[in-house]
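User:
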Amino acid sequence: MVRRREKGFTLLELIIGAAIMALVVGAAATSITTILLNQGRAAGESIALPQVQNAGYWIWRDVQMASNVTPGDPNGFPLSLTIPVDDSRDNDYSIEYVFEGNKLKRRVYDPSDNLTSETFIADYIDVANTTFSTVNATVGYHKLTVTAHRDEERITRSYEISQRLSQ
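Assistant: Predicted structure:
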C-alpha cells in the first residue's frame, strides 16, 4: 500500500507560526503606539511653548519701558503698567494684562483712561501657576513665571525683568 502525501501543515507548525505572528504584531503595535503618543506630546508642546514665549515677550517688553509697575493680588495679575510718552505725566498711557479664562489679554488705555486697544496675547495659560512679582522695587527688578498647558503637556518659563525707567 502506497501512502499518499498529505498536503497542509501540522498542528505544531501552526502553533509556531501563530507564536511568531503574535510577536511580530506585538512589536509593531508597541512601535505604533509609541510613535502616536510621542506625536501627541510633541503637538501639545508645540502649541504650549509659543504661548509661554509670547506672554513672556510682551510682558518683558512692556515692563522694561514702564515707569511704574503695579502687580495685582495674589498672583500679580491684573498687572498694571504706566508707560511714559514724554516728560509730562499727563501724557502717560497705561497697559493692563488681564486673564479671561485661560487667555491673557493686553489692554492699552490713553491718558484719559479710555481703552484704545485690546490684544490677545496667549492662550492655554495656567492662571494658577502664572505669577508676576516685584523682587526689588527700588531698582525695578521683577520676576515673571508663565505656565501654559495643552492636553497633558505643561511648559513653564521664568523671566527676570529690569525696568529701564523706574519711578
